[in-house]
Design a protein that fits this description.
Nuclear Transport Factor 2, Chain: A, seven-stranded mixed sheet, 4 helices, 7 strands
Length: about 170
Amino acid sequence: MTHLMQRVTNIFLLVLLTVSTVVAQTDKKSALFVELKQQDSLFFEKSFNQCDIAYLESRMAQDLKFYHDQSGFQDRTKFFENIKQYICAPSSKKPIRKVDVNSLEVYPLYNNGKLYGAIQMGVHHFYIREQGKEDTHTSTAKFTHVWLMQEGIWKLSEVLSYDHQEPTGH
């Protein structure tokens, strides 16, 4: 791991530990949890699975930071280049993302008592979809998302996608 990546990871973990000791995980029946669960579902269905690039652009913070354990750091520009080249390029094999909804955790972020964002963590599964075939499971990974409320819209600001594992039995 590069020095920068290790430093960023350490800072993020320190912030996460601080937040989790001050503010517990949001109850899975709370409005915030349900809202971010819906955001995750809609966000990834429209952007990753359906390749609605205009929707994706409208839901990503301008200063997006994306950390991936296999493809490295990406800013917003590089992220969109990779989405267009690897996820949404015309192909008979389409990558698909599905979240394990039972793995989701949400931690609110407050500034002077006002909710401005949330940390969402969980596990997601990746598949390859081919017409006329059952989806093929290709990997499982953990994720941590920082969602920020900007002008009344939840926007994805920071993403960590890590611990990618091939399905057992492969």
